[in-house]
Specification:
A hairpin with a 5-residue loop joins strand 2 and strand 3. This protein is an alpha+beta fold and about 100 residues long. The protein is built from four helices and three strands.
Length: about 100
C-alpha cells in the first residue's frame, strides 16, 4: 500500500482519497489509473475484502506511516484522504536496501 501511494503521489505532497485507494487496490473502476498506468491496480483483488484493507490503512495511520485528513471537495463536502509521512519513506528505503 505504501509503494502504491508513492506511485500515485511521487512528490509526496498530494492527498489520495481513501475510498479511491481501496477501489484501486481491489481493481475496481477509479480515477487513479488503469492496469497499464498503475501496476498496483487490482493487486489485492481476491486476497482481501474492502473492510480488511480499511483496517490495514487504519493501522498504517496509527503507526504514523500515513496521515489521514478530511479534504474539501469542489462542491463543499469533505472526504477522507491519505498522505504518506516521512517514516513511511524511511521504512520503504530501509526495506529496499535489505532486499537488494
Amino acid at each position: 500500500m505504501l509503494e502504491c501511494l508513492i506511485n500515485l503521489t511521487p512528490g509526496g505532497d498530494l492527498l489520495v482519497g481513501r475510498a479511491a485507494l481501496v477501489r484501486l487496490l481491489l481493481g475496481q473502476p477509479t480515477a487513479l489509473g488503469t492496469r497499464s498506468s498503475n501496476p498496483y491496480k487490482g493487486v489485492l483483488a481476491g486476497k482481501l475484502k474492502s473492510r480488511e484493507i480499511e483496517k490495514l490503512l487504519a493501522q498504517l495511520v496509527q503507526a504514523g506511516l500515513m496521515i489521514e485528513e478530511n479534504t474539501q471537495t469542489l462542491l463543499g463536502g469533505t472526504y477522507p484522504a491519505l498522505r504518506l509521512e516521512q517514516p513511511a519513506y524511511d521504512w520503504l528505503a530501509q526495506n529496499k536496501k535489505s532486499e537488494g
